[in-house]
Amino acid sequence: MTAGRCTHSLDIRDDVVVKRYTSWGRGEPRREWAALNLLAEHAPGLAPAPVEAALAAHPPVIVMSRLPGRVLRGENATGEQITAMATALNRLHQIPAHVVDKVEPAPWGPPAAVDKTRAWADKQPDLGDDPLVQEALRAGSAWLASTAPDKLISNPRPSVLGLADGNRANYLWDEHERRVRLIDWEDSGRSDRAFELGEVCEHISRLDGVLDAEQLLAHLDLLPAETERVRDFRRLIALGWFLQLGPGGPAAPHNPAGTLKRQAKRVLHLLN
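Given the sequence above, the corresponding structure tokens read:
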């Protein structure tokens, strides 16, 4: 949920992309290289293919295949694109559990999200005087103080390999093959499927263009218990962004005017 963080530079060539890391304190190069190799074995074609890596270099460097297409952030996702996103996510989440269990946990997951969102609420950020925003703040704070967020941590589900980042810039639409591939695996790791889907539905990038989250979820094979958990993770993640959008918040400079009020409406919609 970090706003405005840039950890790398890209050298995009004819057939490969060279990624140089500008920061790697959380093991970003190691995580990405491990994910690309795992995906090449268990879901080939879903992500860039690993070519070579210099993980001990300064800065660390990874070379991967260049994929065709354009990112979905900033677009009004069509029904076909949403179906392709769901197909990609289903394929990713079908990697066998015994394989995923060997992957290190993603740094951004349920415990971190609950702790960070509650910490932001405890700071009582200045979100202005707009009545709708204040209503969302009261409702969100009450939900965060309930036992619902704790259940998201205490009731884990089978693990999946996750991007741990719902930014739609990580979803690459191939116009020729009519499919979606996934890029930017530096925050990846073992994760909770419901959390990952909540991230995709409620990442702040959803406001840059249009993504029909309900349509996306309808294409995924969710059990009733998973559906409930996805709903609560959506609430949590939407609240996390909302609390960072005040005049002095870290997410405010990276989003256009009016984003706070739009996010307040989203929070109230999800909580009702």
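The mean pLDDT is 94. Try to locate this feature in the token string yourself.
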